[in-house]
Design a protein that fits this description.
Elements: H1 7-27, H2 30-38, H3 41-68, H4 71-92, H5 100-125, H6 131-159, H7 163-184, H8 200-206, H9 212-241, H10 244-268, H11 274-287, H12 291-294, H13 298-327, H14 331-335, H15 337-362, H16 369-380, H17 383-396
Length: 399
């Protein structure tokens, strides 16, 4: 039976949820904001590329800070830099389109500082017996943020005629970031131990028989899909409807479905049924893209979004739990948790860059709805390969 979460795990969940709310309020609409100013698929792609690459580099460099010094300060730095990013977009207004690469780099740095520290603290406050429960709750709260925040943002932007609405939601995000920084001071300062090994991940991948030689491509497969889906789905909904309010409603409906799914699967999933659950999720998140081949409308996008929200938890909860179980499989690997978390992020970044590169090759040349659908399908089925690479790890946990 899964163990309950202690107070520190609950507080970390709250900080993560507030960070998610602030990003959901504004982050959903940043690609739309840049699109309205530029009408350029290429610009959106390079903004996102800057974000992904800088996030990965920040993970690697900040790993030393997190391991040898104060990891909570890295967490706070990430939240503060996220606030600086939205403040900068706010001040630049429509001129943000001229600074899309620096803005992407700034947002990537913010994400890197936050998530390297968050993942280390998450590892420390959970264990294999309650990790699925934590991930279920994290998905639940993330979905709740996705229900309310983008819907409110869409209504405000539409009712306040665009620019004023964007200024208001970016400002609200700044306030929520400030609250999450304050709450983070109640998280215990965690002792630093050991020295950081810069090339630890590379050595793991070079070693024959090392389990990370299979885990790394599984993580990269997850990243290939994320690299495109994290921004293109919302942008496609906006381009199909030309209405921020409808994008907000799309997010509300799909996040509500995800909330129920994360809640149900988080309670039902255990070490014995991870393999079947993950295969079901990997296959179905590819199949639900098929309605878009018929026609890309708000209705078919909603069918696709609901299907993705329903089945993604089957894939992502066992994926995340098993990676962290591998990090904690021995005292030695647990001591090297920062380096392993950097290695995990390197896999995600590599996958995201591969997925985004396919976007940058295809869409600037052909941005028809057919091309977008084929691109979504091509990267959307890659998680099946991720499941295949994960199979040995899932078997180890089977009854």
């Amino acid at each position: 039976m899964a163990k309950t979460l202690d107070k520190q795990a609950v507080l970390l969940l709250i900080v993560q949820a507030l960070y998610g709310v602030a990003n959901a309020l504004s982050g959903t609409f940043v690609p739309v904001y840049l699109w309205k100013a530029s009408q350029s698929y290429s610009l959106i792609g390079w903004f996102t590329m800057g974000q992904y690459v800088m996030s990965g580099l920040t993970f690697w460099v900040a790993g030393k800070w997190v391991k040898e010094h104060n990891k909570m300060n890295s967490l706070r730095a990430g939240i503060v830099l996220s606030g600086v990013f939205y403040c900068t977009v706010l001040l630049l207004g429509t001129q943000a389109k001229l600074y899309y690469v620096p803005l992407g780099l700034l947002n990537g740095m913010a994400l890197g500082f936050f998530w390297i520290a968050f993942n280390v603290v998450y590892f420390e406050v959970t264990d294999p017996d309650n990790r699925d429960r934590y991930n279920g709750w994290a998905g639940l709260l993330g979905s709740a943020a996705g229900i309310i925040a983008p819907w409110v943002s869409g209504l405000l932007i539409t009712s306040m005629q665009g620019e004023k609405g964007y200024r208001l939601i970016f400002t609200i995000s700044l306030v929520i970031f400030a609250i999450s920084v304050v709450l983070s001071f109640w998280l215990k300062k965690r002792h630093a131990e050991g020295s950081y090994s810069w090339l630890h991940g590379w050595r793991q991948l070079r070693q024959k028989g090392n389990p990370w030689r299979r885990m790394f491509p599984a993580i990269a497969a997850q990243g290939v899909r994320e690299g495109v889906f994290m921004f293109l789905v919302g942008l496609t909904v906006y381009i199909a409807t030309q209405n921020e309010s409808k994008l907000g409603t799309f997010s509300l409906i799909t996040s509500l479905v995800a909330l129920v799914s994360f809640w149900f699967i988080g309670k039902r999933l255990n070490q014995n049924n991870r393999k079947r659950a993950m295969l079901l999720g990997a296959v179905m998140i590819g199949i639900v893209i098929l309605p878009l081949f018929w026609k890309v409308t708000y209705g078919t996008l909603l069918m696709f979004g609901i299907g993705t929200s329903l089945f993604m938890p089957f894939y992502i909860i066992p994926m995340t739990s098993r990676v962290f179980d591998l990090i904690g499989q021995s005292e030695e690997s647990a001591r090297e948790r920062e380096e392993f978390i950097v290695l995990r992020e390197a896999g995600l970044v590599l996958g995201r860059v591969i997925g985004l590169s396919s976007y940058l090759i295809v869409l600037p040349l052909n941005h028809s709805t057919t091309a977008i659908t084929w691109l979504l399908f091509a990267v959307g089925v890659v998680p099946i390969a991720g499941w295949w690479f994960m199979k040995p790890f899932l078997k180890q946990q089977s009854a």
